[in-house]
Amino acid sequence: MKQINPFSLEDTIVANVTPLVPSAVSIVRISGKKALDIGKTISKKDNIEPRKVHFVRFYDQNENLIDEGLLIYFKAPNSFTGEDVVEIHTHGSVPVVKRIIDEAINLGARFAEAGEFTKRAFLNGKIDLTQAEAIAQLIEAKTSTASKIAVNILEGKLSEQINNLRKVLLNLITLIEAELNFPEDVEEVDIEHIQKEIEKVLSQIDRLISSYKKGQIYTQGIKLAIIGRPNVGKSSLFNALIGYERAIVSEYQGTTRDFIEENISIKGIPVKLLDTAGLRETNDTIEKIGIQKTKEKLEEADIVIFVFDASEGWTKEDKTLYEEIKQKKPIIVGNKIDLLLDKNHRNNIIKDIIYVSSKTKQGIPLLEEKIFERLNVKEDIGDEIYINFRHYKALEKSKATLESSLKNLEMLKNQKEILMLDIQEAEKHLEEIIGEITTEDVLGNIFSNFCIGK
Ligand SMILES: Nc1nc2c(ncn2[C@@H]2O[C@H](COP(=O)(O)OP(=O)(O)OP(=O)(O)O)[C@@H](O)[C@H]2O)c(=O)[nH]1
Ligand SMILES: [Mg+2]
């Protein structure tokens, strides 16, 4: 059998771009040197012009008709991958797509690895590494805000900022290098100028670094646990927040034993909502296990909702329990407000309570508002940039190098070679972000997370 280097740019690759499910239309993409010939053979059409939609019939090698559809040819370098690309649009029939792919393979293509089209786009200089990552992020995005974050990076906004920072550092490197090479002809570089420029770069790096945590809230979301005594209406509140009767609700204490999770979105933020077993002293073995799990979930939660029964008031048990968990700064929710006739009663309890009725849904939007407020993020991110973990790590390294240069600037004034090496190192870490320098490991990591066909 022929040994194929999985990532050789010499190969022509093929894959379905759309999922293999019955649908209106499916797309197969072929990229590489043989793409046009394969397109011509499958469609039995000789004059295929680039960037034109051709309505054709597709045939297998025995001249059997596979389907009719559209064929588009993107001539290198004006394609997604930068290579010759042929796109075949068929009816969304799984066997049709498979036959087209088989034909392309018969004609010399091989099935693409995950992310291989995007990897080629990167290797051929069509996009940089931040943009390649953004494509995967965009496809994976679960909320509209997460998609906006990806699109902003795909537009090249992060690369632009990184390149601006690199420019400042490269200018410094040039100045110092000139001074070192031509000490007679070139004036000594003003150390205050160097200091100011490094500080400028550092403040931008800090701004980008701080975007990482916020970005995680938008893309990864948060965990929100509902905690409280038995029967206060935790499961009812859980159901009210997710919008359907998922958790069992009953008038018996200790109804919920195992915790239940459900994913929701609050103003575009993915929220993993957790209903837990009511906390109380009990001899019931199963309930005890549930309570232990509740305590674990409490630790993991980013935000805790502490529920009490407002119709009963803030009882001694509520107070004891609250004291136990207050370090998590819970949002306190008084439930069953529909049963509360004496409205003045509310003011007698602690401040900052959200009153709701899980039964009538009164107060639920306000609670969602409060949860969102706690996250301290914007609803519309505009054109703001939120970096990923890889960017974050590289920026941290660049920052550490620059900070140490700043600290030792007085000493480095007379050791400009070392200063220059430091600045060069800081600049290299910025290069890593956009992928000017990368290793096969880094690329493997990024592209293996892609889906097939991208
Ligand atoms: N009137 C009224 N009744 C409610 C409300 N929320 C819950 N209940 C009732 O309170 C009882 C307990 O509700 P659950 O949601 O099962 O309470 P829980 O806190 O999950 O209880 P455990 O799972 O046992 O810890 C049920 O009979 C619910 O119908 C509410 O807002 N108004
Ligand atoms: Mg329950």
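qc> The pocket of guanosine-5'-triphosphate (ligand 1) is lined by residues 228, 230-236, 249-251, 253-256, 277-278, 335-336, 338-339, 357-359 (CB under 6 Å).
qc> done
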